[in-house]
Amino acid sequence: MPESGSATAQILAEKIGREGPIALSDYMGIANAAYYSAKDPLGEQGDFVTAPEISQMFGELVGIWLSDLWLRKGRPHHAHYVELGPGRGTLASDALRTMTRFGYEPDIHFVETSAALKAKQAALHPGATWHATVENLPDSGPLMIVANEFFDALPIEQFIVTPQGLRRLMVTCEAGSFVTVPEDREAEDPISRATGGFPIGTILETSPASAALWERLSGRVAKQGGVILIIDYGYDRPGTGSTLQAVKNHMPVNPFDSPGSADLTAHVNFHSLANIARSRLLSVHGPAEQGQWLKTMGIDQRAAKLALASPEKADAVRAAHHRLTNAEEMGSLFRVMAATSLEWPKPEGYPG
Ligand code: SAH
Asked: How far is the C-alpha of 59 from the C-alpha of 65, rounded, in Å?
């Protein structure tokens, strides 16, 4: 039993005691479900800060982006606003307020599992409908789906190249700590066929949960029309190495030290999500770097306007603009990718 001794650590240790080493995706799924159900982790007082919590400009520009697409498609009726993992509901507030100015007042659908965050979302959006899974989203009418820092929280699997071939990494309990160990048989995952030539010790990641969810969303958008807009940290080309990380009180911690009390995430594989969307006959736009995308959408002008309207807030607006767009901050690591139904126009934000 790990020394951290939390209820989640105990549940995981008992599961390992019963079943032997468990998949990393099970470890991450159980840890994150416990983590998000218990508290609101966002903001300076919490564990991490997201773009919509940094500035209203982020949600406003997402709202303009959605409105532009909706207007150029000819104002379709019942084009639902759907957000995955809406956190405190801040992005939705800023986006929907802006959309109203363009005459776009969709109904609101949130996909959320955390009771703590659902309560916060309900305070801001009393008319919203909540869904535990995407299966229950409306099955007619275009879906305008937004996901900011959602896919990074979904469980991943890792594989390691060993002299005996590719092995899946499992989580076990050793001397009171959670550690990863290679499974005792060769991996059956399709990536095992593509790993010839990688040095011993190389780690490869997949996220079957993200791929499956993205595939379902892509199928819906292909059939019903609309768009999926994903904003997250990640990579556009296939790569190697572990990107699993944990954050607590704004500091990196060991992902195996305190399951259930730290946010476990991994980088999003945009390359793989783009391929899945294309296989469903969606058009893929980007990914663009967040800083570039926000500038194309007019964040410089919006910041100048906000600073002029409230001079006492000018420094804060400048700081938020810097944090969202600068390459050293969130500007480069975060990517913005859109997948649209074929009959929909090309979205803004992707020049060239
Ligand atoms: N989008 C928000 C919050 C990001 S944190 C923002 O940018 O501020 C991740 C969000 O996804 C939280 O709302 C969390 O409760 C939710 N979440 C995490 N895993 C989930 C899952 N498997 N199903 C549904 N929601 C999930």
From this structure: 10
Q: Is 65 helix (H, G, I), strand (E, B) or coil?
A: helix
Ligand 1 atom showing the smallest separation from residue 42 Cα: 8
Of the candidates 351, 352, 288, which has an alpha carbon nearest to the alpha carbon of residue 325?
A: 288
Q: How far is the CA of 209 from the centre of ligand 1 (A)?
A: 14
- Burial level of 308, CB count in 10 A (0-12/13-18/19+)? exposed
> Rounded to whole angstroms, how far apart are CA atoms 219 and 210?
14
- Mean pLDDT of all residues in 54-58: 98
Closest residue by Cα to residue 62 from 27, 18, 87, 96: 96
CB 254 within 8 A of CB 290: no
Q: Which residues pair with 228 in a beta bridge?
A: 145, 339
Among residues 88, 98, 82, the alpha carbon closest in space to that of 122 is found at: 88
Which residues sit with their C-beta closer than 6 Å to ligand 1? 32, 36, 42, 50, 52-53, 85-87, 91, 111-114, 117, 148-150, 153
Closest C-alpha among 103, 111, 107, 108 to residue 70: 103
- Name which residue sits closest to atom 3 of ligand 1, judged by CA: 87
Residue 192 has pLDDT above 60, yes or no: no
Q: How confident is the model at residue 238 (pLDDT cuts 50, 70, 90)?
A: confident
Three-state SS at 35: helix
Q: What is the pLDDT of residues 118-160, one digit of tens each?
A: 999 999 999 999 999 999 999 999 999 999 999 999 999 999 9
Q: Tokens for 255, please give them.
A: 């992902």
Beta strands in 24-135 (DSSP E): 80-84, 108-111, 129-131
**62-119 confidence digits (pLDDT tens):** 999 999 999 999 999 999 999 999 999 999 999 999 999 999 999 999 999 999 999 9
At 116, list the tokens: 């703590």
Check residue 153 and report its DSSP letter. Answer: G
Pairing of strands 226-235, 143-148: parallel
- Phi, psi dihedrals of residue 65, rounded to the nearest 5°: -60, -45
Q: How far apart are CA 338 and CA 263, in angstroms?
A: 26
